[in-house]
Design goal:
Elements (H helix, E strand, L loop, with lengths): L4 E2 L2 H9 L5 E12 L9 E7 L5 E7 L14 E9 L6 E3 L13 E4 L2 E3 L1
Parallel strand pairs: 1-2, 4-6
Antiparallel strand pairs: 2-3, 2-5, 3-4, 5-6, 5-7, 7-8
């Protein structure tokens, strides 16, 4: 298990360029797109954040474990703490919730001052 890292844009860009995964990160971005929920297996609220460096990050927030962010709209700022996984589109942040088995760092999302975990 890696130690938490503040995910500034340079760190996330480096992780993307070197195709790194399983990195526990914290950061924030602006919602550029709200996607339909992923209902295959565990349900996930999905949206894309744009970082200051223009990198896109998909947030996959497990809503079977944690509450969904209500009324999320384009332009909203969302802070995150979770695990980065590389993909060719910019990466995915998941584990943005508490681990019910306490084997993984507890993640979260923060929107308008409210933490969702």
């Amino acid at each position: 298990m890696s130690l938490p890292v503040w995910a500034n844009d340079a760190l996330l860009q480096q992780a993307y360029e070197s195709q790194q995964s399983d990195i526990q990160v914290q950061g924030e971005g602006i919602v550029s797109r709200v996607l339909a929920d992923d209902d295959k297996g565990s349900r996930h609220q999905r949206f894309i954040l744009r970082l200051d460096n223009r990198q896109s990050i998909l947030i996959a927030h497990n809503i079977d474990i944690a509450p969904r962010i209500p009324n999320l709209t384009m332009g909203d700022t969302v802070q995150f703490y979770g695990e980065y996984e590389w993909n060719k589109k910019g990466g995915v942040i998941h584990w943005t919730h508490k681990d019910p088995n306490n084997r993984h760092p507890h993640g979260w999302l923060k929107h308008k001052g409210i933490k969702y975990q």
